[in-house]
Write a structure and sequence with these properties.
- The chain is of the alpha+beta class and 184 residues long.
- The protein has three helices and nine strands.
- Helix 1 (4-16) packs across helix 3 (172-183).
- It folds into two domains: 4-66 and 160-183, Arc Repressor Mutant, subunit A (Orthogonal Bundle), CATH 1.10.10; 78-134, no CATH class.
- The longest helix is centred in the first third of the chain and has 13 residues, at 4-16.
- The protein starts with a helix and ends with a helix.
- The structure holds zinc ion (ZN) (3 copies).
- One zinc ion binds at residues 74, 76-77, 79, 132, 134-135, 137.
Length: 184
């Protein structure tokens, strides 16, 4: 026999199609107040609701919020004053070089000095390199950190944990049980 509060939540899930996490709420109140996580999981245990992993998201170690912004820092001086430069590969000489602008305009390979006109197919994009405009270092990868919007502070990757967040939808059994409940 279905409880009235279960029927109310099932009807709400049916109306929405999918109840998703509220990513602006702290982890303990991730779903709206009418849809508490423990209640949703009880309905999953009854087979009335199906839980679908939606994303594996960062959670702030200080305030438990999922509202975090990934950002890049210089691995040397930790500033944010970075830009990227494309890297090219000259296939005949295996040279890798940086070049900003239209690669078609490059007259000769900066590595082997051979003329490049008419042979642009011998040049391929080979990724990018970071420049720090504060400390002048160059590096292939920046440090990634997460800025928590509610805390207004940055957390290192090692301090942040990742958690699976689920979306919930009505199962066929839930649909039938809800109809039976309303016709009783
Ligand atoms: Zn926080
Ligand atoms: Zn730097
Ligand atoms: Zn070359």
């Amino acid at each position: 026999m279905m409880q009235a509060e279960d029927a109310a939540l099932l009807a709400k899930i049916r109306a929405r199609g999918l109840v998703q996490p509220d990513l602006r709420a702290v982890a303990s109140q991730l779903y709206e107040s009418q849809a508490r996580a423990d209640h949703l999981w009880r309905l999953v245990d009854q087979d009335w609701v199906i839980a679908e992993p939606m994303l594996r998201a960062t959670r702030c170690p200080a305030c438990q919020s999922h509202e975090m912004l990934a950002h890049e820092r210089c691995p040397n001086c930790r500033c944010a004053n970075l830009l990227t430069q494309p890297l090219y590969h000259h296939i005949p000489c295996a040279g890798i070089f940086e070049f900003q602008g239209q690669i078609e305009d490059l007259a000769q390979c900066p590595k082997c000095k051979s003329a490049l006109n008419q042979e642009q197919d011998r040049i391929e994009l080979a990724g990018q390199i970071y420049h720090c405009l504060d400390c002048a270092q160059r590096f292939p990868e920046p440090v990634i950190e997460f800025w928590c919007l509610p805390c207004n502070q940055s957390h290192r990757l090692e301090a942040v944990s990742f958690h699976r967040l689920y979306a919930f939808r009505l199962s066929e059994a839930g649909e039938l049980a809800l109809r039976r409940h309303h016709s009783e």
